[in-house]
TrEMBL record, chains A, B:
Highest rank taxon of the organism: Bacteria
Protein name: Putative proteasome-type protease
InterPro entries for the chain: Ntn_hydrolases_N, UCP009120_prtse
MF (Gene Ontology): peptidase activity
Gene3D superfamilies for the chain: Glutamine Phosphoribosylpyrophosphate, subunit 1, domain 1
UniProt GO BP: proteolysis
SUPFAM superfamilies cross-referenced by the UniProt entry: N-terminal nucleophile aminohydrolases (Ntn hydrolases)
UniProt GO cellular component terms: proteasome complex
Keywords assigned: Hydrolase, Protease, Proteasome
Length: 239, 239
């Protein structure tokens, strides 16, 4: 399992992913699920992946190959808009998904996958998409400024309560970390370390990028303070 | 969808269910999912149901029929222990589930269901079970003093943080209501009114029972105070 979340705020984008991958409980590994494609000052595209690792790795490899070949139709670094970037990723994801599942049909398994895609190109808008394995996608808006993939339920309530487009990047960063903390507590297949990046609007590059390791003291302190705030808030409730 | 939760505390049991049933988003209705069987001072059994309404209603009808017939093998009011009660309910649920799904197999639908069963008989222990459609069941313990059925993810984090066997019934009541509040905010197919009951250990009857209607001022105040506590706690976090 996986948990990835992206926020589209007035001042920029915040994206967070875990790194745990498992094929059954007895086969757990750590894989990066955050991928950045950047020409600094011109274009930045960040992709977070969830689902079957053979599907998502193949999609990323195909995207990289098209960039290396400077393929005008399939390179996300040449696409004229973020919408076109999302469409290229959607087509690639759907092609791989269909191909893998055709082979899997004989067994009883199926391989699903989805992706968060965020970025901005010079002269374009900062946008955040959720791309489905069918190749279609939805986009974050002012009404719903966040998107999630993977194990999204445990970490949703806090996002609903604190994230609006006016939220600052610093507060948004805290919100996605608390959302991830709730998810990791409830689902063992979501785990540290975490990858977090921010893209400030109009910078056309990754503004900050950090890996938060297990036992990170700042994250642990935040997690503990949140637990205390929840307990104290609960115990002081009326009714 | 449905959300039902039960707590097994040192002083008694707290059970809460919503009442919303839907067959598609355009066909929403209100059905009670909490059923009580009681011989005051001798035996009390409370059942909460989740899943396909045709399955759960048929199971409850069959349980009632066996009680009316005073069937020594199938009446949960004659079963010599709460374990036997859970077994009778498990067998009945599995029989109905299999029968309904055999007929449904020709379509692509399937009808799943599960139940929470709690109670105590004179001379026996107070126990809380989760009965699966396969007829098997698990029991709440000191390590995990709560059980949930239906849409369980949104409301789980608060239970994990505040419920222990030493929790009082009054605090447990608040905990299940906050857990339900989080669930209703995130899943439209879980909705008011709510049914809440408590069974104090050694009373062999339902100790309190209440229906909480939409707009209930005490529940609304608790929900609002919880929202404020979450936001305030979040905004004062370090990191």
């Amino acid at each position: 399992m996986t948990y990835c979340v992206g926020l589209l705020l007035e001042t920029g984008i915040v994206m967070l992913s875990d790194t745990r991958t498992n094929a059954g409980f007895d086969n757990v590994a750590c894989y990066r699920k955050m991928f950045v494609f950047e020409t600094t000052g011109e274009r930045v595209v960040a992709i977070l992946t969830a689902g079957n690792l053979s599907v998502t790795q193949t999609v990323i490899a195909k995207l990289r190959q098209a960039i290396a070949r400077d393929d005008p139709e399939h390179s996300i670094m040449r696409a004229p808009s973020m919408l076109d970037v999302a469409e290229i990723i959607g087509r690639t994801l759907n092609d791989v998904h269909v191909a893998v599942n055709e082979r899997m049909e004989r067994t009883k398994y199926s391989a699903s996958a989805s992706m968060l895609v965020a970025g901005q190109r010079l002269g374009g808008q900062l946008r955040l998409f959720l791309v489905y394995e069918e190749g279609n996608f939805i986009e974050a808006t002012d009404d719903t400024p966040y998107l999630q993939i993977g194990e999204h339920k445990y970490g949703k309530p806090i996002l609903d309560r604190v994230v609006t487009p006016e939220t600052t990047i610093e507060v948004g960063r805290k919100a996605v970390l608390i959302s991830m903390d709730s998810t990791m507590r409830s689902n063992l297949s979501v785990g540290m370390p975490l990858d977090l990046l921010t893209i400030r609007r109009g910078e056309y590059r990754v503004s900050t990028r950090e890996r938060i390791e297990a036992g990170d003291p700042t994250f642990s302190a935040m997690s503990e303070a949140w637990g205390n705030a929840l307990r104290d808030g609960f115990l002081s409730l009326p009714g």
